Backbone:
């Protein structure tokens, strides 16, 4: 049953387009973890690897742990059968559906030392040192949704190289001029903001918003309880929190009022808020670096990405769309914090204001390393950088 399911899925997967992460992964590592929100393409990466690297060889085997087979069987049973039949690589999908998944993965890793394991799981996964300590055994990668640059390639519009933030800031006129000489950039950018972040947009053109809302429900009803021991009441409160915040993002939250409205206390409210962020439904902006901050009130709350924002609250201001796009694209690879002046501070050094074509420097005029990210602009000048170009960082 499992073998037939794998064969069907591998045969169907397309290898015409690869996510940037696909090439970044060191597939030679014995234990690889790929975390990410629902719908961003983690399963596709596994199936593409099997199809291209093994070409029908029985040395590779794929299982998804949400299969009913695992109601009565264990991952170790599958690993043992695969190894005894000459298998060398085990690809495990949706690992968060497995109770005590860390112990299971560790035991398979330790007991079958010549078996390579690649597994995927929810972005909410936590590598807990108290349960097997996988942290020193594995390489962990995070998969986000499509960057704007990836979307252009995936949609068959044009292929361009990834840019560094340093290049974008220093050479944005040259880079944007080259790109705009090869394609009209603003129309696909508008499409991307509404429907281009999740690769499954090609499958559901008309029902895309509904699909995203259903996906958010699955995160709350399936993934969240699989990772945290929570009640049905907590799931309902988390869903209500998401809808309340999505209708008014971005905002500097009055957390006491929000907790009172949800009939919860500060501690549980913060846990729900951070769970929504870990799940890829919200992005929390704080004045502290994400490397340093603890479970505390954020300074500003955004929807995770513009597609989700339009799905949850279609009537959204242009300024909100712009800021959400910038934060989503830049924070995937850089540390973004909430500054005293301006909209975003990147890597503790570069200050950005985000706005439309008429946006001026205003409060950040005399601040070193300050720049504007400008929407509705193909090619910028000076310290005015086209907003869409920040989608080329990933």
Residues:
């Amino acid at each position: 049953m499992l073998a037939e399911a794998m064969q069907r899925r591998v045969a169907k997967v397309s290898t015409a387009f690869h996510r940037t992460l696909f090439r970044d992964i060191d597939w030679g590592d014995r234990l690889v973890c790929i975390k990410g929100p629902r719908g961003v393409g983690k399963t596709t990466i596994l199936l593409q690897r099997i199809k291209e690297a093994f070409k029908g060889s029985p040395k590779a085997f794929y299982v998804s742990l949400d299969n009913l087979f695992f109601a009565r069987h264990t991952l170790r049973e599958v690993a043992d059968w695969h190894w005894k039949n000459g298998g060398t690589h085990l690809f495990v999908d949706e690992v968060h559906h497995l109770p005590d998944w860390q112990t299971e993965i560790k035991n398979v890793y330790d007991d079958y030392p010549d078996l390579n394991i690649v597994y995927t799981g929810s972005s909410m996964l936590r590598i807990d040192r108290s349960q097997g300590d996988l942290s020193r055994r594995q390489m962990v990668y995070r998969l986000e949704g499509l960057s704007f640059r990836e979307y252009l390639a995936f949609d068959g519009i044009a292929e361009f190289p990834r840019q560094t933030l340093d290049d974008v800031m220093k050479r944005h006129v040259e880079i944007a001029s080259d790109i705009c000489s090869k394609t009209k950039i603003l129309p696909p950018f508008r499409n991307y903001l509404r429907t281009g972040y999740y690769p499954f947009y090609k499958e559901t053109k008309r029902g895309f918003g509904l699909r995203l809302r259903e996906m958010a429900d699955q995160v709350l009803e399936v993934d969240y309880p699989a990772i945290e021991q929570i009640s049905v009441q907590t799931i309902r409160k988390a869903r209500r929190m998401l809808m309340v915040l999505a209708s008014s993002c971005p905002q500097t939250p009055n957390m006491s009022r929000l907790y009172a409205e949800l009939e919860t206390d500060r501690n549980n409210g913060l846990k729900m808020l951070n769970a929504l962020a870990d799940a890829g439904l919200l992005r929390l902006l704080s004045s502290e670096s994400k490397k340093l901050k603890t479970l505390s009130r954020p300074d500003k709350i955004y929807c995770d990405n513009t597609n989700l924002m339009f799905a949850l609250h279609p009537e959204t201001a242009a300024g909100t769309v712009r800021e959400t796009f910038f934060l989503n694209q830049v924070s995937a690879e850089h540390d973004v914090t909430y500054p005293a002046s301006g909209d975003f501070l990147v890597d503790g050094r570069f200050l950005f204001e985000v706005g439309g074509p008429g946006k001026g420097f205003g409060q950040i005029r005399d601040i070193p390393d300050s720049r504007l990210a400008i929407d509705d602009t193909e090619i910028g000048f000076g310290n005015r950088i086209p907003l869409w170009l920040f989608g080329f960082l990933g």
